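Reviewer comment 2.1 asked that we show a complete input and output for one of the modelled complexes. We chose the thiamine diphosphate case, as it is the one discussed in the main text.
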Amino acid sequence: MLKPATAPDISALKAVEERLRWLSAWTIHHANHVRDNADGLKVGGHQASCASMTAIMAALYFHALGPNDRVAVKPHAGPVLHAIHYLLGTQTREALENFRGLGGAQSYPSRTKDRIPVDFSTGSVGLGVAITAFASLVQDWLAAKGKLAEDQRGRFVALIGDAELDEGNIYEALIEGAKHDVRNLWWIIDYNRQSLDATSADRMFERFDEIFRACGWRVVELRYGKRLAAALDAQPAVREWLESLPNAEHSVLTYQGGGAWRTRMVADLGAGSEPFLADHDDAQLAELMADLGGHCMETLTQAFDECSADDVPTLFIAWTVKGFGLPFAGHKDNHAGLMNPTQMTAFAEQMGVAPGEEWEPLGPLGGNARAGVEALIAAARIHRDKRPRCFGQLTVPPIPAPTGEEQSTQAAFGRILLDLAKSGHPLADRILTTSPDVTVSTNLGAFVNQRGLFRRQDLADAFAKAKIPSAQKWGMMPSGQHIELGIAENNLFLMLAAAGLAGDLFGERLVPIGTLYDPFIARGLDALNYACYQDARFLLVATPSGITLGPEGGAHQSINPPLIALGQPGLRHYEPAFADELALFMGEAFRLIDDPAGESTYLRLSTRNLRQPQRANDAWQADALAGGYWLREPGPGAEAAIVAMGAVMPEALAAHEELSADLPGLGLLSISSPDLLHRGWSAAQAARWQGRREPGHAETLLSRLPANAGLVTLCDAAPASLSWLGGVCGQRVAPLGVDRFGQTGSLADLYATYRLDGSAITEAIAGLLLPNG
Ligand SMILES: Cc1ncc(C[n+]2csc(CCOP(=O)(O)OP(=O)(O)O)c2C)c(N)n1
Ligand SMILES: [Mg+2]
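Response of the prediction step:
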């Protein structure tokens, strides 16, 4: 691992810290109190959260970080990151002046929306921390395959608000990381002992270090700065007193200042406090008591230097004061607190910033101090421009559909991946598969047998060695492509997020494929959203799904994921009924992973064996890719159509055959993506407002029917997944689907109970065509 290039220039780093504290506070102040505010909404920002971290971030960015290191910055310290890039010359004054405005610097660091290089977006606390563990794992995966040279590798740093430690996803990642012997991680806690609402509970003090140590981490606690440590060393009684002070009272005294510290020490320690207090007036005392490890440049740089030489995952607990150096330092309500204009003027004076010079990057610095800071900035090894995103590395081979008269989409998925693994096509080498303990039951097993499990050190399959027959070969090796996760679906999505950013993080586009049971998407929903928000690219295969799972019962029968997908940007839902559709959508998903304008794909699959259709030609394919195609064309003047999706297609086909005698021209529309159809519908409205007439695919399909036709929609999911289609051309709809929890049962029983069968379709059509019947 890279060591810091030079000994730290402490005074220059301190000057940088002041600049960061000023610029972050000013950026927020400007947005709230200087810039025009037409709508009167509070703009907001977190001056206290920023001031808490400026020393830590100065020490990191201008001393400790190497060129390949990647950082997830605590969301509320976003303005500090922008200030750093302003000093480095990679952020503009214009973007800072427009902080939290349209096109300006974002409130929380955003990979896609900010113009500065942001390694990981943050905002939903906890997720930015955990993704660094998975990014480190992806780095090891690539390195083990010779895809990432030694000098291209780096460390993954998470800057963490201490209240983020309440997020369970951090511990899920910690445990998974320990299993994989994760390394090159620095998690740095801004331990200001304040959250949004309040000060932290004392009972968790000295517990986090135990948790991390138990997982094999090195824990470095930076409690005191050099000056305070020396003062307390000389007066052990004061140290004992200070360390027994409840956190809330510590915060009160920090807020009240030197006079309050003095009064309290005299009251609690009597004459014993005199030697400690004697040399300091109130202002000096306040400063001394705020000299915590996370504000002391010597302490920080020394700690970072000491841990730079190895790759041991390290937790730094840097004690800090929330709002350090600001008038509301330590106040429990300071989270969203903003300095008022009077306080800001006083702060400017204190920082030596003259009126009109607020945006000067180096502000009041002159002479040697300025030269020192300029040298520090020039030497910052993390300095880099935003890299262009990395696309165009994949060639997608044709994906043939598995043959077989009867197939389930889940089994076909396994076959397609197996064929790819055996084909030796370069795309297969870029596939990283992963699953939270459902590799075998989602049909990933055959691929894993071919390509192995990833582990930095070889580990033979004990069962195979003992010659015990098993369908699964679980040999672990550096060349292995599958990353097996414990049952924590949140980790699956963070893994997909990290692997889906491999192109941007490491210059190597991967094809991440993750599998899980469809209902458990909900378990990792925020992490899925987080992955999409960063435009990570992957293929999510959710199987099995719906009440079609039959005897497995209601706890495993998913209902609402198609609705989730309908509302999730950056994720395209396809729900194939047949194996040839699946093959088509998998090819498309691979293409989308490597297309700058692409997105991730969610395939909702099933274990139900369906008789496969005989196709006359490939004409259906373009329409299927766009979201739906006529499986049975409607006749002229057709009064009705059945509109069906996925595993219930046999019921739709049978009903179609039965009803066609009485309803000539009855159509059967196969929906492959309600998500795409809805987007097309919205886009058509937007185009119309701009004077263009570009019907969406749903309109093109449904305009084959008269405006007064009836639609029976049918899916093994929430009926709203398809019922909205009636709005496209104004046709009447009878929606069939699942809107109660499922239960155990045979398919015939369940389809009858939940009204997904032929008689339900017949009744629904009758209801549409004979409203009084
Ligand atoms: C998942 C999630 N829940 C809630 C919030 C709202 N929120 C933002 S910051 C915060 C507390 C932050 O405290 P801490 O992590 O200690 O940061 P500090 O500002 O003290 O440095 C909360 C609850 C959020 N951003 N994300
Ligand atoms: Mg905090």
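The first strand starts at residue 70 and ends at 72. We note this here for comparison with the apo prediction described in Section 3.2.
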